[in-house]
Amino acid sequence: MSTSPERLAPNVDVLRLAAHIANPVSAVDLRAVDAGALSRAGQLLEKQKVSFIPIAQKFGSALDGTPLADFVARDAARYRAQRDEFERIRLALAEERVSTMVFKSTGAVPSFHYLSSNLDILVQEGNARIGRRVLTDLGYVELLNVEEPRKFLFRRFTGDGSSFAFHLHEVVGWGVPFLDNLPVWEHARHATDDPDILIPGVSEGLLVTLAHWFYEDKALSLGNLFLTAHALRNMSEALAEPAAHARRRGWEDGFWSALVVFAAAWNRLFDEPGLSSEQREELERAPARYAGLRKRLLPLVSYGSNDVPALIPFGANKVAYYHKITRDIARPVGRKLVDVSDTLLWAVRWKLHIRSQPALLVTVSGIDGSGKSLQAERLRGTFDTCDVRVQQIWARGASSRGAGVLIRAGKRALGGGGSGATAPPKVSNEAQKFEERRQRLRNPVARWAFSVVFAADLVRPYVWQTRRAMLNGRVVICDRHICDALVDYALYTGTDPANPPLALKVLHTMIPRPNVAILLDVDADEALRRKPEEGSAEHLAAARRMLLDLAQARRMTVVGGNSNAEEIQRSVARTALDSFYARYGTLINWLLRSNPGQLNTREH
User: Are residues 235 and 381 in the same domain?
Assistant: First the structure.
């Protein structure tokens, strides 16, 4: 080999154990291994995206009662969920005569590559437009903020905060193409263990895997270690065949270097060669073709550190990436210059953690017990999942500590709290609280003072905090907003929410207008069932009528709150995300060549 083995890092024992558990030909007596070590090995295998399906086939009942059993069960459930969802998408695309390929698969069981953070699927050139339409019809939302050239990311939110991510590719590449589409599709084959899916040919599968972990991940994980090994074992042609494909796309030096790293990592873990004798001979004959990387990059590769088989040095790897761009003979010179410029700008954006995005205000209203807080929290998680900066705000008029002090002082001033005064009846639920306040606020002076305190209490969350967050380019989710405040005040005072006092009118003029205003509509009886501490459905029914009237006048989006929480979440998430992405695009992203229209031509 062209690199000399280094001493393994001290923490390689768990890595070696995990590798031997996953290696189909390694013998491991699970009963002789400490349970804690097995648990750590399971965590490592899960983190580095090794499928537990072949592990379960390898050990069978010997896994029962071991810490690995839980990992196997969890992995099997994930596989089934992902595979069923892909089948739904595959059939929908097939109806539109669009073929799909699980292009990150090398044919290792299971061939369906379900362990990526996104389900990566390739369609033929020119079919992305149809694929995007089909996915949208299936309930997916296109995430424009994480789009790449000719790669489109979609998510469908399924309830309880979970989601499916689908990455639609028209080319195999990371920033720039790494493989030619024609041979990828010409050599595609049906997986032996899953005949309904298409996977790349063996040579193309090896190229995809090597390019992904060497250039994109800059690390050889256990998952990619075994994918690479499977592809190499099943190669019927010489390595010169995939090397020629890599040479055309400008990265033959990376191809040979990746094989050196793989072979060294495999030998360190298993004390045996990872390449056949013929492949080792080919690799030994190829040094001139990767002399630059052999000098600048291979000596800096770290093996076994951080419980990873191999880590690729970032700086040297980025130099190799730009060499690939300039040597790609399939790209004209002008296109290469644009590629270099664009990828440099994207690297600046990534390294400086620039996440420029438009501001958005989403309000979630509804009667108590309608599920506002649950849906606001889930919506916050939805935007977090989409890598969108978000802030959640909750407020209710006259509920802060300062407002409480003023209200108690007002009660004493009006004769409700003196030393000789009769103590008011104890309030045990919200219905009694509304009634008690209504009795006190019959006095017009008290009502006026209360309106000022009530409105002032909402200035900080609805005006100051909201505007500050939006000026910083955040999505703001308000759990309760002005309509809830108007209805609360009307219930407290027996007035009309459509004709609030001056203080609330002034507040109304100060707050930013929502981009998405959602009303969760639920029956009063159902709300009381969910939140029995309300004490009565009477005030809930009155609040519901008022909110529906306000929603109609303000054209709010009304979502049926009697539906289950998962159905509501899907509706709320899609409504909010569609609104966010409909106005997506910023000046900073334009300067960094990162707006959707700059990355991909938009169809109208």
Answer: no
Is there a single domain that holds both residue 133 and residue 243? Answer: yes
Q: What percent of the chain has pLDDT over 70?
A: 94
Helix pair angle (202-211, 252-270), 10° resolution: 90
CA distance linking residue 224 with residue 282, whole number of Å: 22
Query: Which CATH number do you get for residue 462?
Result: 3.40.50.300
237/241 Cα distance (integer angstroms): 7
Confirm whether 413 is domain-assigned: yes
**Which residue, among 117, 131, 99, has the nearest Cα to 200 in the 3D structure?**
99
Range among 225-239, 348-362, 528-542, 585-599 rated most confident: 225-239
Is the same domain home to 305 and 446? Answer: no
Residue 590 lies in a domain: no
What's the pLDDT score for residue 414? 65
Q: Give the largest Cα separation in the chain, rounded.
A: 102
Does residue 457 sit in the same domain as residue 316?
Answer: no
Cα atoms in the 13 Å half-sphere on the side-chain side of 194 = 21
Q: Look at the chain and report how many structural domains it folds into.
A: 2
Q: How far apart are CA 144 and CA 133, in angstroms?
A: 14
Same domain assignment for residues 367 and 250: no
Token pair 């299936």 is found at 138
pLDDT digits (tens, 9 = 90+) for 471-507: 999 999 999 999 999 999 999 998 999 999 999 999 9
Q: What angle do helix axes 252-270 and 277-285 make, rounded to 10 degrees?
A: 140
- In tens, the pLDDT along 9-55 reads 444 489 999 999 999 999 999 999 999 999 999 999 999 999 999 99
Burial class (CB in 10 A: 0-12, 13-18, 19+), 564: exposed
Say if residues 310 and 298 touch (Cβ distance below 8 Å): no
* Residues 107 and 251 occupy one common structural domain: yes
Which pair of tokens denotes residue 91?
């059939």
What distance in Å separates the CA atoms of residue 514 and residue 467, rounded to the nearest whole number? 11
Closest CA to 123 of 91, 178, 171: 171
Both 302 and 428 in one domain: the answer is no
Check residue 593 and report its DSSP letter.
T
The reported pTM is: 0.86
In a domain, 61, yes or no: yes
Range of the domain at 377: 360-583
- 1 falls in which pLDDT band (50, 70, 90)? very low
Whole-number Cα distances in Å, 314 to 3, 99, 219: 19, 36, 10
* Angstrom distance (rounded) from CA 487 to CA 373: 18
Residue-wise pLDDT for 176-195, tens only, equals 999 999 999 999 999 999 99
Q: What angle do CA 474, 478, 480 make, to 5 degrees?
A: 175
As a residue count, the chain comes to 604
CB-based burial of residue 406 (10 Å sphere; 0-12 exposed, 13-18 middle, 19+ buried)?
middle
d(CA 213, CA 228): 10
Which tokens is 582 given? 């409909």
Cβ–Cβ under 8 Å, residues 89 and 135: yes
* Residue burial 377-399, b: 16+ Cβ < 10 Å; e: rest: bbbbbbbebbebebbbbebbbbe
366, β-bridge pairs? 520
Q: Which residues contact 186 (CB under 8 A, 6 or more apart)?
A: none
Structural domain includes residue 121: yes
